[in-house]
Each structure stands twice: as structure tokens, then as C-alpha cells.
Write a structure and sequence with these properties.
The chain is an alpha/beta fold. The chain is built from eleven helices and seven strands.
Length: 200
């Protein structure tokens, strides 16, 4: 039975969607254009990879000056992209901790926003260790971030269950020897962890 549980954060423990912010800032008929062109997820991914918010925002404003106010809001109002905790997943996390199983996280997350997010959601403060892509300037599914995690915390992949909503990240972890679980919803996750013999 694996002895260490490794969580992704975005859309496993915290529901996240850029639209949650932009829907408050733009007319409904412009939202698709904003998400696909002005501030696409691929642009946000550069922040997950360690890009500076000020630089990234300035670059988008230069391309879409008519949306300057909306783009500039992505820094001070970024927390509004988080819809809130995925309560069933957080309950599982706390159950695993309660029985003494060590919990860790490997997350694609902007470095500039991680500490403030932990302050807002205290359950994120209980991990034995966290690898944050924006700090390391490497991202899942790059095997290097998983290898860094194992080396830093002196863990063996075969002892770890890794949980992520991205099939690509799950595949990368599996290739390195993790027992990897594709997150769909908390109920399915509970059943999959129970099938591994974990006390949930």
C-alpha cells in the first residue's frame, strides 16, 4: 500500500476558472473572445511557469490596449479566479492527515499568488512539503518537477499516490513509478483511494 499522498491543488482541492473573474469584468458576449484571445489559459500558463505578473500583463496590454483595465485586474483580483474549495476533496485530505498519512503537493501555480492563497485556505498549510511550478520554473507534466519533488523530500515514487485532474500529468507520474490517480470528482477519488487500501 502506498504510504504518501501527493495532491495537485488546482481543480483537485480548489476549483479554478479564469472565467470566474472575467465574467465580472466583461459583457457576456465578449467573454469567449477574452478567454480565447485576450487572456487565454496558455497566457496564464506562463505565470504558472514563473513569469512575472507585471511583465506578462504589460505584454497583453500592448497587444490589446482596449482591454487594459480588464487585463490589469488579473493581478490584484486574481483570487477571484478561484471559485472555492472542492469540499469533498478537502475532506479526504483531512481524513488522510488524521490517520497520520503524510500529504504533499505538486502544483502548477503562480509563485506570486501561492502564499496568499495558502493564507486564505488554511488546509493548504498542512502539507509536509509542496513543489510550486512558478517557484521552480518547471511545470507538470515535465518529469523534472516530479524528480525534484522526490529528491527534495527523499521519497520513492513507488511509495506515493499522485492525484491530478490532468491526464498528461497522471501519465507523466505513472511513467516515473508513482501510483497515479486521475481526479474526476471527490466521490470517485474516495473509491479509488479505498481500492488502494487507504483508510478513507
Amino acid at each position: 500500500m502506498p504510504t504518501t499522498i501527493v495532491f495537485d491543488i488546482g481543480n483537485v482541492l480548489l476549483a479554478w476558472d479564469m472565467r470566474n473573474l472575467f465574467a465580472k469584468l466583461a459583457p457576456a458576449d465578449e467573454l469567449a473572445h477574452i478567454i480565447e484571445n485576450v487572456c487565454p489559459v496558455s497566457w496564464h500558463t506562463t505565470l504558472d511557469g514563473g513569469a512575472c505578473y507585471a511583465d506578462a500583463i504589460a505584454q497583453r496590454v500592448a497587444l490589446y490596449p482596449q482591454y487594459a483595465a480588464l487585463i490589469e485586474a488579473y493581478d490584484p483580483r486574481w483570487q477571484e479566479t478561484i471559485i472555492g474549495p472542492i469540499h469533498g476533496s478537502v475532506a479526504l485530505l483531512e481524513e488522510l492527515r488524521a490517520v497520520g498519512l503524510p500529504t504533499y503537493a505538486i502544483t502548477n501555480f503562480p509563485a506570486e499568488k501561492f502564499d496568499e492563497t495558502c493564507a486564505l485556505y488554511p488546509f493548504l498549510q498542512g502539507f509536509q512539503g509542496v513543489v510550486v511550478s512558478g517557484r521552480e520554473r518547471m511545470m507538470k507534466p515535465d518529469p523534472a518537477i516530479f524528480e525534484l519533488f522526490l529528491e527534495r523530500y527523499e521519497l520513492a515514487a513507488q511509495d506515493c499516490v499522485f492525484i491530478d485532474d490532468s491526464p498528461a500529468n497522471v501519465a507523466a507520474a505513472t511513467a516515473l513509478g508513482f501510483t497515479a490517480v486521475h481526479f474526476v470528482d471527490p466521490q470517485t477519488l474516495r473509491a479509488e483511494l479505498a481500492a488502494l487500501g487507504l483508510p478513507v
